[in-house]
Amino acid sequence: MTATAERTTTATPTTGGWRAVTAHLLMQYRRIWLGSVISSFLTPLLYLAGMGFGLGMLVDRSAGGIDGVPYLAFIAPGVLAATALQVGAGESTFPVMAAMKWVPIYFGMLASPLRVRDVVRGHHAFVLLRVATSSVVFLAVAAALGTVRSWWGLLAAPMAMLGGMAFATCTYAYAARLDNDRGLTMLLRFVVTPMSLFAGTFFPIEQLPGWLQPVAWATPLWHAVDACRALMLGTATPGAVLGHVAYLGLWLVIGSVASERVLRRRLVT
Amino acid sequence: MPPSPPTTPLIRATGLVKTFGDFVAVDGIDVAVEPGESFGFLGPNGAGKSSTMRMIGCVSPPSAGTLTVLGMDPRTDGPRIRAQLGVVPQRDSLDEELTVEENIWVYGRYFGLPRHLVRERARDLLEFAQLTDRATSIVEPLSGGMKRRLTIARALVNTPRILLLDEPTTGLDPQARHVLWDRLFRLKREGVTLVLTTHYMDEAEQLCDRLVVMDRGTIVAEGSPRDLIARYSTREVLELRFDSDDHADHVADVAGIAERCEVLPDRLLLYVANGEDAHGEVHRRGLEPLSALVRRSTLEDVFLHLTGRTLVD
């Protein structure tokens, strides 16, 4: 009795919380899911096929793979982590600017009981869903191709998700500061693409010129790639994996805190 | 006529200030909005109306002064206040990629309303907004008037105690404006407290029980539209247009005819009790204006009298 009475009194002023934001973004996503699935899932598969089988045949024949690992098995964890990163970056750049400028749904949200924190968390949760589905499906396909050589490899999916979110929260904060989309194009062209190619994805970073190696080492992607690779190949050591998790966790925390602060400064004036 | 003074105001601002850097957008205003009334902020662009509305809507923290909305402090109780507000912003914030009904569904969820309740209310609200046959259309190609009505329908999904409307009909054609006014009038009759800003004097006269005239961040007058006209203007206005580059040249010719005379770039405004009599006197003096028009005083004249400027440039 008291419980129902309490519920009716507190039910009037209420809020949907961050879930309402995620629900909204999912409803938007329903309209474009097909094209999105093609670009976020089929593209990495094409990479895997083209590079793994095509280029891989040359690598395996002339060098016996990389460190004794067939080229396909070497790059599968790299493409997994790079895909998670790209999907995360994609969903936390242009859609953020859209929600502030082109289809200004954030203003409608903030006119309701939702807080800036709900908006940021709800959007991040949506990005996580996108990154998670891409990672899980990709890992399943990679496993079917025989590139997962250890049960620890199952952890490569959450590892890729962590890497994707560590970077996505930071791109979110960056996008929320910008006045136009030029900065986003720059980010994708000059940061995301080079990182996807050179952060240990397709070849070990030891192949890079000496001065570039610390740069690659500092990128979140290299840590995600290295951890995913160790897990999928069954060569993981707890210390190394936990080190990667800690480093990516740091990016995640900084990105999350920054996202909220930047968006508040932008929208609550 | 508003009823006898009710108990506590829904909105009360005292010495409310909003600054952006060095710019003072709202410069110490005092306002009280009573339950069930329809209250307006009238003023030109840049008068501080929207800044005031955003503070009341708890999306813009006041720089100084006190503000209570529904008895709570926007600084600390923003989400709880906003749960009971309906907001129609100056610029539509609809999701144009979704359908009309989907817009209401997602908005209802912001308020934590259960799905079945939102769907039920969406049907009623779309009927109210005369959008039932558009329920499953994508929003983007709809007309400005339809989008505006959808924004209002959406703002009512939580059955708010106060509906805030910032320039509700700016940019709409006359017919769409009348449809919208009709809807707002219905809400007013149902007892919803309306708070709106406008720079259209006809809108303020149509919708507001009481209003404040704002100029450069301050309130220059307050009252019902009829009070304000009675206090700051005459019953009628005679507008004279001469074949002349500078209408100030003709002020001496009409001296003594009117209580007050305003010079606009393209005409003279003579404030008089009886326009026809004044027109007769103009004629007797042998003046030959290109055109002469007698009309009733409006809030536009009140604003011109108070600030020396027109509302819409």
Question: Could you walk me through the main structural features you see in this protein, from its secondary elements to its overall organization?
Answer:
Chain A has one domain. In chain A, helix 10 runs antiparallel to helix 11. The longest helix of chain A is centred in the N-terminal third of the chain and has 47 residues. By secondary structure, chain A is mainly alpha-helical. Chain A contains eleven helices and no strands. Chain B contains ten helices and 13 strands. In chain B, the strands form three sheets. In chain B, strands 5-6-7-3-8-9 form a six-stranded mixed beta sheet, with helices on both faces. A four-stranded antiparallel beta sheet of chain B has the order 11-12-10-13, covered by helices on one side. In chain B, helix 3 runs parallel beside helix 5 and helix 5 runs parallel beside helix 6. The chains are: A mainly alpha (269), B alpha/beta (313). Chains A and B meet through helix 2 and helix 5 of A and helix 2 and helix 3 of B.
Structural class from helices and strands of chain A? Answer: mainly alpha
Q: What global shape of chain B is seen?
A: globular
**Total domains of chain A:** 1
Distance between the termini of chain A: 44 Å
Question: Average pLDDT value of chain B?
Answer: 92
Q: If you compute it from the alpha carbons, what radius of gyration of chain B comes out, rounded to the nearest whole angstrom?
A: 22 Å
- The secondary structure category of chain B is alpha/beta
Low-confidence stretches of chain A: 1-13
Helix and strand layout, with pairings?
The complex is a heterodimer of chains A (269) and B (313).
Chain A: H1 2-11, H2 17-63, H3 71-91, H4 94-102, H5 105-110, H6 116-144, H7 156-177, H8 182-198, H9 213-218, H10 220-233, H11 238-267
Chain B: E1 11-20, E2 23-33, E3 38-42, H1 49-56, E4 64-69, H2 74-82, E5 85-88, H3 100-110, H4 115-128, H5 144-155, E6 162-166, H6 174-189, E7 193-198, H7 201-207, E8 210-215, E9 218-223, H8 225-232, E10 236-241, E11 260-263, E12 268-272, H9 275-284, E13 291-296, H10 299-307
Parallel strand pairs in B: 3-7, 3-8, 5-6, 6-7
Antiparallel strand pairs in B: 1-2, 1-4, 8-9, 10-12, 10-13, 11-12
